[in-house]
Design brief:
Layout: H1 5-13, H2 15-18, H3 37-44, H4 46-49, H5 59-62, H6 67-75, H7 88-99, H8 113-116, E1 144-145, E2 171-178, E3 188-190, E4 193-197, E5 202-207, E6 213-218, E7 228-231, E8 240-246, E9 250-255, E10 261-266, E11 273-274, E12 280-282, E13 285-292, H9 294-297, E14 311-316, E15 322-327, E16 334-338, E17 344-347, E18 358-360, E19 365-369, E20 384-389, E21 395-400, E22 439-442, E23 448-453, E24 458-463, E25 469-475, E26 490-491, E27 495-500, E28 512-517, E29 523-528, E30 551-553, E31 556-560, E32 565-570, E33 576-581, E34 587-589, E35 593-595, E36 606-608, E37 611-616, E38 637-643
Length: 646
């Protein structure tokens, strides 16, 4: 599965802090009696974060998050399973120290980060200037890029971008928005309105041309999903609604014009759960995928491994009522044995869904790709493409593309580890998940194909009319646990554009952009990334990996790379026609400040109305080398480009 390292590694690298029993706070505890955040950090965090290596974020990287994000991670997010017993005062003290903020002056035993430190809280400045002119009416039928892809077939193809391929070389920065959080959600564009989410716990509505803030909603936990905006049925709670999922394990609807919450529904309560894939809206239903960080948690011998099953949940868009929930295996986890420390092991477990569901309107189906399993018990829905009935959630067919891919972290020797984690499966799989959305593609004559990429670097064409039977397959590189194909491909009428990561595939890796003929999988061209890129940061993440989702327009393809280079390629030849370095130099951002971009990963470029929007910066992909402090190497900037910067 794709590795959302910021929250997972926050959990992993702060284990020492969380494994020590916390102090108990009484309801009357005041700030003066609160735990000492510096002391807590020194005794429980410093060993990892003051000597950060590989994927462990340095303290300076953690400090870029808001206190609400740190508290949210401890309370509702990736760290919650390991934070059991920590008082609200402990969490607040840790968050205040790491972020360099002042602890709130109120009783500490029941802190709500939304009202204390969250974006939009009293005294919190906007991250960009507020808009001074009245916003135009929001028209969901206006041109844009609404959701993970312009259409729910998830081709990531913009047929009417508002700029020609010949004009792409004239693209220049128009504005840039730096805001708290990391690995933030891909931008959604509806006419003059631009929406984006934040792992700091904020959802923003911006003016698409200038970047000024129209409203900012404070979520109760981080969110990294792309939002979708729709017109609600007559009699609904608002004229238009905006949907996303957050790490309180919930689906959320907001009034798209005001940011006011319309409803919020918790859809799962599994330990270690994450909300990573973007929800898809179709036919009055919101389809929300559920993933997890359990393969990271299971590295720790104290974790009871493993009870999580991935699932897809359908909700009514107007009321937030759960209509159905379907797990990626029907078999409930149960104990099957003991690990080497005598702890109970559970299975089947795994099958997370990391990407946006894909809609097949003709057949009434919704398609998902799934992640690896965690334990030795057979998981029939892991590393699979699955078709579910949109109305009922019934599984119509599944095609498991790789069996027995049982994987958790910590099953290797090295990097300070002398024995494998106790929860390791007997036969460790390669972690070759399907982390991207299947693309439903129309061929001439009415035939359709499902195009699927895997972290093994396999690309498949499946026949949806024959229960997902493989039509063709091609492997482009060795692949790795971080891809091969990671966050997403793009397709036009004839060609499938495939970004290859291979970031930890060694010398055999083949990072770059590839084009395949959709009809038969033939390789049309390849555009390898530079073998030795230069970056502001010095680590394995200075790499040519194309892991970020790819975007296509007529005649051109956009792709961001780990080295911070954002490139456009000629769709017919693969020749680079434009490039912009987002990571090396400071970027002038809204609010009369400067900030850095960094590694480009996760959600990809959004193109519409003559503009190109993309995030640069992905926490967890910086690290240190030789003891160097790489402050800012992960960056966090949403950049907007236009022709000649106009």
């Amino acid at each position: 599965m794709p590795k959302p390292f910021s929250p997972i590694l926050l959990a992993a690298s702060l284990l020492a802090m969380l494994s020590v029993s916390a102090t108990t706070a009484r309801a009357s505890d005041e700030v003066a009696l609160a735990p000492n955040g510096a002391k807590l950090y020194a005794t429980r965090c410093a060993a990892c974060h003051d000597n950060a290596t590989d994927r462990t974020p340095a303290k300076s990287v953690l400090a870029k998050n808001t206190p609400a994000f740190i508290i949210g991670s401890l309370t509702n997010g990736a760290m919650a399973p390991m934070a059991e017993g920590l008082s609200a005062a402990d969490k607040a003290a840790i968050a205040a120290y790491i972020t360099g903020t002042k602890a709130p002056t109120k009783a500490m035993a029941d802190i709500d980060p939304k009202t204390i430190w969250g974006p939009g809280a009293a005294g919190t400045p906007l991250d960009a200037p507020a808009c001074t002119s009245k916003a135009p009416p929001l028209n969901v039928k206006a041109a844009g890029w609404n959701g993970w892809s312009p259409t729910p077939t998830n081709a990531r193809y913009q047929a009417k971008p508002g700029l020609r391929a010949a004009e792409v070389p004239r693209l220049k920065p128009k504005w840039a928005f730096n805001y708290p959080g990391a690995k933030n959600g891909q931008a959604t564009l509806v006419g003059d309105w631009l929406f984006t989410t934040s792992m700091s716990g904020a959802v923003y509505a911006l003016d698409a041309k200038t970047g000024c803030v129209r409203w900012r909603h404070t979520a109760q936990a981080g969110t990294r999903s792309s939002v979708t905006v729709i017109e609600l049925p007559a009699g609904g709670p608002a004229r238009q609604a905006l949907f996303f999922s957050d790490w309180t394990k919930s689906a959320v609807a907001l009034n798209a014009e005001t940011g006011e919450q319309l409803w919020k529904t918790q859809i799962d309560d599994s330990a270690g759960l994450q909300m990573t894939g973007s929800p898809t809206v179709y036919g009055g239903r919101l389809f929300v995928p559920i993933s997890s960080g359990v393969e990271a948690f299971a590295e720790f011998d104290g974790w009871e491994c493993c009870k999580f099953r991935g699932s897809l949940v359908a909700l009514d868009v107007a009321r937030g009522e759960i209509l159905w929930k379907t797990y990626t295996t029907a078999v409930e986890p149960k104990p099957f044995g003991l690990n080497r420390l005598g702890r109970e092991m559970w299975g089947p477990s795994g099958g997370a869904i990391w990407s946006a569901p894909t809609i097949d309107a003709k057949r009434g189906l919704v398609y998902v790709g799934t992640s690896n399993s965690y334990t030795d018990v057979v998981y029939d829905g892991a590393d699979a493409v699955m078709a579910m009935d949109m109305a009922t959630g019934a599984i119509v067919w599944k095609n498991q593309l790789l069996e027995h891919d049982n994987y958790i972290n910590g099953c290797w020797i090295g990097g300070g580890r002398t024995v494998p984690a106790a929860n390791c499966p007997n036969k460790l799989g390669p972690d070759f998940s399907i982390g991207n959305s299947p693309i439903l593609h129309d061929l001439p004559g009415g035939r359709q194909l499902l195009l699927v990429g895997q972290k093994s670097s396999h690309v498949y064409a499946l026949d949806p009319a024959q229960d997902g039977k493989i039509v063709w397959e091609r492997r482009l590189s060795p692949g790795s646990a971080l891809g091969g194909v990671e966050f997403g491909m793009a397709a036009d009428a004839e060609r499938l554009y495939v970004g290859i990561s291979d970031v930890i595939a060694g010398d055999e890796g083949k990072p770059g952009l590839y084009a395949l003929r959709i009809s038969d999988g033939a390789l049309l061209w390849s555009a390898p990334s530079p073998a030795k890129p230069t970056c502001r940061w010095v680590s394995r993440w200075c790499h040519g990996a194309i892991s970020q989702a790819v975007t296509a327009i007529p005649g051109a393809v956009f792709a961001g790379a780990y080295d911070g280079r954002f490139r456009a390629y000629d769709a017919k030849t693969g020749k680079v026609i434009w490039s912009h370095d987002t990571g090396t130099d400071p970027i002038q951002v809204l609010g009369e400040r400067t900030a850095f971009g960094g590694v480009m990963d996760g959600g990809g470029p959004t193109v519409a109305n003559g503009m190109v929007y993309v995030h640069s910066g992905y926490a967890g992909r910086s690290g240190a080398s030789g003891g160097r402090d790489l402050t800012g190497a992960d960056g966090n900037v949403l950049m907007a480009f236009s022709i000649d910067g106009r």
